[in-house]
Amino acid sequence: MSEHYTQSTESDLKYCPRCQRRTEHAVSAGRIGRCREHAAPRFTQKQQRLADKRAEALREPNLPGIE
Ligand SMILES: [Zn+2]
To answer: Where exactly are the structural domains of the chain?
Structure first.
């Protein structure tokens, strides 16, 4: 099975074993990617940004006041 997508293709329907049905999959650079249905973010974009910031702060080894 060799499906090819044009550069302008952004999504395609493909069977997703996790969703157990055909779902919309992201296509990027001519290759099919992740299922868009079950990959829906748990957080809103704003909440996700805050969560990312917190995770980054936890990884940051040079926080002022911590040695
Ligand atoms: Zn899925």
So the answer is: 11-59
